[in-house]
Design goal:
With 703 residues, the chain is an alpha+beta fold. Helix content is 58%, strand content 8%.
């Protein structure tokens, strides 16, 4: 009697029940030998990484592989290699039956019963989609496929391009992903070619992430090809209860000194906000994007921060950690933040400033904590035929420009405020305490001392606002910033003993006894003008001195060159040589070319690289502040929580991408298809979206 240990296709050991023990042993040896031969023979037709389907022997697998060469195996089960290779082309076929099974593409077809698995193979082999894939594989071997791809891409391009433009619009306009579907519907109703696929928020998110990824790859490739020096600016903040770090990179875009600031990444600090977490997050973000350690050691030359202790502390903090890895790195404390610190220091030493600050803060509270007061102020403005400016906070964590706008608003709204205070003090519906409060506010507002203090503050803040805005400009270099700071200090020093623009108007009004129709009462100003101006000058000088880095870079800016040729001959050569050594350039060549530039107006290549590198340094972290503002608009509380990857992609496209009319979707569509994504012309399996239920009310709106 004969027993088979496998299926009909297996190479199974055969034993005879009536055989002797020796025969059994011999049969065992033959069985082992046969299995070894099978393994050896199977090794020629089976990749080492392939695994046999469940309960299949080598000979069985070899037999099915010979009949179906397209079969492949993996950890998940069986797959089809030709369907996987032809996936992106078959996705353009809209006919029923052309859709490929993800299981066959991903190699996850399996079954615990061998008969069912063989049946699945037969069904797939005879399917229309598999036959189309086989035809494409045949065309590829005959080198006919390239022209076929072009023709196919031309037919489906417009539909996919519509989807990409819609996704790009979602990112640029900071819309939720859910708005993608109605945008696509509007495009379709307006006659645009729109495919059946890519109609929901998920494809929109994937497209935006793909666009951002391809943009970043191209930018990093360009930076590395040009060997551009880079400067990093970073900041940390909390958005909707989650801590994030935002990163900007400044570099030469064209290799000709055309510098730009790139929003690089925003990363959630889920491991904490300590220096170690910030250090690991920054390095990981740069290296994942393609900036390896060797490139950063050579080209990362500056980092700008807002001066927080966790960023700029000694020994164990972020900057010190980075300097250990990148010896050429120099740190810059945001100059715009230092201007704010200088202003706050000055307010503390000049006593009268506290009275003005308290009064302005009281005005803010009156009109922002009571809708009744805000409404009455608007009514008072209407009675006087005036437009009012919004009164904001003063001398807070915001930029100095915000404080200037508040002081400006109080002066412009002066008659409206006086009218409202007078009306409120005479309002019988208010309590006696309230009427007395508004009487006191009117008395203080209309005093000559308060008006003079307001004028002095406005003149000072106007100059500081101008300085702050110059420092925050995208094209301002560190040397430019130094020049702007010294210029502002000189102006404020000169204004100390002269009347400013607003002060002239107020002095004239005091002489007449009224300001903008409001009668003024005599009072002494609280702020000592000379002391206040001197305090501002002293604190700007103390907080914003020229660092060693600025001193090193100044000779490469013609604004600082001496006018006399005799002084110019050797001017700045030591600084240029030091800077060249810092960047790993030839100091001898740099000094020689610098001398030619000074005396003959001729720049050499080494000197050009040094000049571009000097302009690469960002003086402020204002870009990060703008980035967080964009982040607050994008990741608003009215939408679902965004993944960090999606948020970064949205901001990357929004901040760095060109306007919609200059966006070319073609290269992104090509890379999209190459990476295995479906086109918008793809046939969509499963149930299709149903139209909205028709309401009887809608018939009224029809023509």
């Amino acid at each position: 009697m004969v027993h088979s240990t496998g299926t009909e296709d297996d190479s199974a050991a055969v034993t005879t029940t009536s055989s002797a023990a020796a025969g059994a042993e011999c049969g065992t040896e033959m069985n082992v030998t046969s299995e070894k031969e099978d393994e050896k023979a199977g090794s020629d037709t089976m990749d080492k990484t392939e695994q046999l389907p469940n309960k299949w022997g080598l000979n069985q697998w070899r037999s099915w592989k010979e009949r179906n060469p397209w079969l492949v195996t993996g950890e998940g089960g069986l797959g089809c290699i030709i369907c996987k290779e032809a996936k992106t082309l078959l996705l353009s076929e809209k006919k029923i039956g052309v859709h490929l099974s993800d299981a066959w593409i991903n190699g996850t077809v399996s079954s615990p019963v061998q008969k069912q698995l063989r049946k699945k193979i037969d069904i797939h082999r005879d399917s229309f989609a598999h036959k189309r894939a086989a035809e494409i594989a045949d065309l590829k071997q005959k080198e006919i496929l390239p022209s076929n791809v072009v023709k196919l891409s031309s037919a489906m391009f417009e539909e996919t391009a519509s989807s990409f433009r819609a996704a790009y619009t979602v990112a640029k306009e900071r819309l939720p992903f859910s708005k993608f579907s109605p945008i696509m519907k509007v495009n379709e109703l307006n006659g645009a070619t729109v495919g059946p696929a890519h109609r929901s928020d998920h494809p929109c998110a994937n497209m935006v992430e793909h666009i951002a990824e391809q943009m970043k790859k191209k930018i990093i490739s360009n930076v590395k090809a040009l060997d551009s020096r880079i400067s990093v600016t970073l900041d940390e903040s909390t958005i909707h209860g989650r801590a994030y770090m935002i990163i900007y990179v400044r570099f030469d875009v064209t290799g000709k000194g055309d510098l730009d600031n790139l929003f690089f990444d925003i990363v959630e600090l889920d491991q904490g906000t300590d220096a170690e977490s910030l250090y690991n997050t920054l390095k990981n973000s740069l290296q994942v994007a393609g900036m390896d350690a060797a490139f950063l050691r050579k080209n990362l030359i500056r980092i700008a921060t807002d001066g927080a202790a966790v960023l700029t502390g000694k020994q164990t903090e972020l900057i010190e950690r980075l300097k250990q890895d990148f010896p050429r790195l120099q740190a810059v404390h945001c100059l715009a933040h230092r201007v704010e610190l200088a202003v706050n220091d000055s307010l503390k030493v000049v006593a009268g400033c506290n009275h003005l600050e308290c009064f302005l803060s009281k005005l803010y509270a009156i009109y922002h904590q009571s809708t009744k007061n805000a409404r009455e102020l608007e009514q008072a403005a209407s009675e006087l035929n005036m437009q009012i400016l919004k009164i904001g906070k003063v001398f807070t964590i915001r930029w100095v420009a915000s404080s200037f706008n508040t002081v400006k608003a109080v002066l412009k709204d002066f008659p409206v405020l006086a009218h409202h205070f007078r009306s409120a003090s005479d309002d019988g519906s208010r309590s006696g305490v309230e009427r007395a409060k508004y009487t006191g506010l009117l008395k203080h507002l209309s005093s000559t001392g308060f008006v003079e203090d307001l004028a002095t503050m406005k003149d000072v803040l106007r100059e500081l606002q101008g300085l702050s805005l110059k420092l925050q400009r995208r094209d301002t270099s560190l040397v430019d910033a130094s020049r702007f700071i010294h210029q502002t200090i000189e102006v404020l020093s000169a204004m100390k003993d002269r009347w400013g623009k607003t002060e002239i108007k107020v002095k004239t009004a005091i002489t007449r006894g009224q300001l903008k129709g409001v009668v003024l009462t005599e009072a002494q100003p609280k702020i000592k003008k000379t002391q206040f101006y001197q305090a501002i000058v002293d604190n700007l000088t103390k907080r914003l001195p020229d660092s060693d880095l600025v001193t090193m870079l100044k000779p490469m800016d013609q604004h600082f060159w001496p006018k006399e040729r005799a002084e110019l001959v050797l001017f700045g050569e030591h600084e240029v040589a030091t800077f060249a050594k810092l960047l790993g350039e030839s100091a001898t060549e740099a000094v020689s070319e610098f001398r030619d530039w000074k005396l003959e107006r001729d720049q050499g290549n080494t000197l050009k690289r040094l000049i571009v590198a000097s302009n690469t340094v960002l003086p402020t972290s204002a870009e990060c502040e703008r980035g967080f503002s964009a982040c607050n608009d994008t990741d608003c509380q009215t939408r679902n929580k965004l993944r960090a990857r999606s948020l970064s992609a949205l901001l990357f496209v929004d901040i760095n991408g060109p306007p919609l009319d200059r966006f070319d979707p073609a290269p992104f569509i090509q890379s999209w298809i190459k990476t295995g994504h479906r086109t918008s012309a793809s046939w969509v399996p499963g149930p299709q979206p149903q139209p909205a239920e028709i309401r009887p009310l809608w018939s009224i709106f029809s023509a």
